[in-house]
Design a protein that fits this description.
The protein has helices spanning 52-59, 82-89, 107-118, 124-137, 154-165, 184-201, 212-218, 236-240, 245-252, 254-263, 270-279, and strands spanning 2-3, 14-23, 26-36, 41-46, 67-72, 75-76, 92-95, 172-176, 204-208, 221-226, 229-234. By secondary structure, the chain is α/β, with parallel strands linked by helices. The strands form two sheets. A seven-stranded mixed beta sheet has the order 1-11-10-4-9-8-7, sandwiched between helices. Helix 3 runs parallel beside helix 5 (154-165) and helix 6 (184-201) runs parallel beside helix 7 (212-218). The structure holds adenosine-5'-triphosphate. This is ABC transporter ATP-binding protein. Keywords: ATP-binding, Nucleotide-binding, Transport.
């Protein structure tokens, strides 16, 4: 793996070394390395089927790797002790692609599930109060706590899933394509919420996305999955300077250029900015335009 900005001396709450995953003869990862920095939003990108979700599932212990080492918050995830396993699972929150809410429970009850599981001793009243607070923290109105998932819009479902992911005051937040299926305004609002929560709660965020606007708007660094590995991890300007064909196509393709222009970040490489402005008609950029690299 090419770590493009290796001047960092802080902690790595997630370390993956030599990860190999295979389903039968189908090898998904082969010697994949990745280190996530404390307090960053790390975007994870790659073509469809490159194993982004399998990587996330391996990190949170839902997928047993064929080989390799995974350490989360200092604990070995490949061979955790039972005690470690319970402790570590209470220190992260996960928003799965479809939200994964229990359809027969209200939003509030969904948020209560992890609280009941990890803190069975707390009273019903306190648990309900915490759940309502998390619902509000996720930008939902109070009354949403009493609704069933089927009564919510797609954006509200994502927020409800986020409320549940935040139930235990996690240090790590895993988001699998959080803006997929949202309208541009809803997606931008969800991006802002993620960034705000990361800053106020001091979260480290592992974020799988195809959404180029999300990458530009909220990711501190981006890890690129290709050829069964993380081929590079760095800021977008650092990635743009690389010569890899997939990275060039992804970030410098029409959608990538439009997202770059939309972002208009002065830190981005000036030459890339000029190229982008030449290549993208002015009408391609509006406040509501979102670009996916899918
Ligand atoms: N439980 C499983 N059994 C067999 N194959 C699986 C399993 N889970 C994932 N795969 C395969 O692993 C590969 C990677 O899947 P994964 O869902 O991680 O891709 P992805 O990069 O997240 O894709 P997308 O961007 O389309 O969501 C795919 O070919 C998928 O079919």
């Amino acid at each position: 793996m090419t770590d493009l900005s290796n001047d960092y001396e802080g902690e790595y709450p997630i370390r993956v070394e030599g990860l190999t995953n295979a389903f039968g003869d189908h090898r998904i990862h082969d010697g994949l390395d990745l280190k996530v920095r404390k307090g960053e939003v790390l975007g994870v990108v790659g073509g469809s089927g490159t194993g982004k979700s399998v990587l996330m599932r391996s990190i949170i212990g839902l997928q047993t790797p064929t080989s390799g080492d995974i350490e989360v918050l200092g604990r070995n995830m490949t061979h955790p002790s039972e005690e470690d396993d319970i402790d570590i699972r209470s220190r992260w929150g996960v928003l799965f692609q479809g939200g994964a809410l229990f359809s027969t429970l209200t939003v509030g009850e969904n948020v209560e599930v992890p609280l009941k599981q990890f803190y069975p001793e707390i009273s019903d009243t306190l648990r309900q109060d915490i759940a309502r607070f998390k619902v509000r923290l996720s930008g939902l109105p109070d009354e949403a706590a009493f609704k069933y998932p089927s009564e919510l819009s797609g954006g509200m479902k994502k927020r409800a899933g986020l409320a549940r992911a935040l139930a235990l005051d996690p240090e790590l937040l895993f988001l699998d394509e959080p803006t997929a299926g949202l309208d541009p305004i809803g997606a931008a609002a969800f991006d802002n919420l993620t960034r705000e929560l990361k800053e106020t709660l001091g979260l480290t965020v592992f974020l799988i996305t195809h959404d180029l606007d999300t990458l530009y708007a909220i990711c501190d660094r981006v890890a690129v999955l290709a050829d069964k590995k993380v081929i590079a991890v760095g800021t977008i300007p650092e990635l743009l300077a690389l010569d890899h064909p997939w990275i060039q196509e992804y970030f410098n393709g029409p959608r990538g250029r439009a997202a770059l222009v939309a972002k208009g970040d002065p830190k981005l490489d000036a030459a890339a900015q000029v190229n982008a402005e030449c290549a993208v008609p002015a009408t391609a950029h509006s406040d509501n335009s979102r670009q996916t690299g899918a």
